[in-house]
Every structure is written in C-alpha cells, then in structure tokens.
Amino acid sequence: MFNLKFLVFFTIFIQIVPSMIDLVENDLYTSEMIKCVDFMALLFKMETAEKCLARNSLLSKEKNEFKCCFYSFKKDPMADFKKKYGENWKKIVAQSNGYDLNISEEEIRKKLTQNVKEEGLCQLTMKSLNTSFLYLNSMLSLDGIVKYDCGEGQKTFNKNEFRPKTKDEIIDKELFDSTIANSEKDCLKNGAKLSVDDYQMCWCEKVPLSSGPLNEKECLAFKTSTFQERLKKQMNRAQKDNSKEEYKCTCSNNKNKTIKGRFNSVTGEVKVE
Q1: 181 or 262: which carries more pLDDT confidence?
Q2: Which residues of 44-63 are buried (b: 16+ CB within 10 A; e: fewer)?
C-alpha cells in the first residue's frame, strides 16, 4: 500500500538526485507537496488521476514550476527491504514472514509479488524534473513500467527503454543506479566511477542510541561541497523528532578520495574528515 511511510521513503530517496538535493530541503517544496497528497485517499486506495490533477488549483501561482502528477505502477515489495536492510534484507524478510532462512531470492520474489496490484500515487513534481521522477518510480516498479498523467492524458514510461539525453538526466540516472548497491564495497566502488567531480557515494549507517529498530544501512549520494551542511540538517531533524541516534558515513568519489562524516544527535557533534 502506498502510504505515509512510502512518501517519507520517497522524500529521502530523491535527495540522491543532484537537481533535487536542494529541492527536498526547500520550504516551498515541502508546503506545496502537502497540497498534492490526500492521505485518506491513499489509505483507502481511492486515489484517482482526476482527484490528483484537480489539486493543481491549490498550488502557489507565484512559482509555476510545480505540478501534481498521478503515477501508477506495481510497486516492487522487495525494493524497500533491499534499500533499508542492505545485505541483510533476505534474512530479515525470511524471519518476518516465517520463511526458511535458506530461501533463495527468486523464491522470495515469487512469494511476495504473486498478488501485487497496480496502485496510484499523487506526487508533487517539478516540471523540469519529471523525467527524473519517472526514472525513480520505475526503479521502485516491479516491471520497470510507470503510467503517469500530468494533465495531458495518461502516458507510459519504461525504464528499460530510457536513454538519458540531457546532462542532468545522465547524472541523475548515474546516481540513481549507484544507490542500488546493497554493500559498502559496491557502494564505494560506484562512487569511484562517478563522472561528476562534486558528488560522492556514501555508505551510511544509522545507529540507535536507545532501544529501537535495527541499524539501518544504505548507499546514498551527497554533494561533496554541502556534505557537512546536509549532515547538520539531518541531525537537527533527528533532534526535533527526539530521535537519539548516531549517523556514520564512509564515502568515495572519482578522485579516489575517502571522506568520512558523522553526527550524534545526543551530543550535537557533526564532523566531516
């Protein structure tokens, strides 16, 4: 089910796109995004393209670059597990569903995807970045296909047929593809292959400092020049939510340089070295 959890995941995920890094931390984007989302419609699976597009009338007239678009696809239930738990995803899925711990990925996919149905989600999109949003959604799609309507009728985007043309599309796709890594080794290897100088791939781990969920590990992209600033903003959000955690990242870039960053929401320390 598309729900608040998915929207939070989506908001965090789009931070890996260079042209969206500043977007997700923009107050205007946050306030406009809420206007596109009807949580009750999502909860009861009653969201439609007509209702989504009608919300465009609620968006600010001062900034005309935003629009509500309706996306529908079969969400891959394994995508969240792989992103959240990295190399341990299969063990955690097996334990939580009562599967044999030696079950293969193919068997898990067959069990989890046999009843997947297409569902719709209304998202705030920046007109110039719609291709990046489509590619993101296609990565979460079971078959790589996304149907979308931004007010000009339903169209279809196929990940397997996508050939980036502009510089931004090429960079966005490169960073998106790099985040698929489920291990620190693969994540850092992808960082060394980046074609852009001011970005790095980071293997990050969130460690709860009090009783809480398991450690979360994931591969993310950060802009090198704003790495410490991003960590500080993330720590501020954790403190605001009263989340006691330590966040540690090891990063690599195409200059064969390893950069480490961390923060502690209890002590307030933020450090990049």
Answers
A1: 262
A2: eeebebeebbebbeebeeee
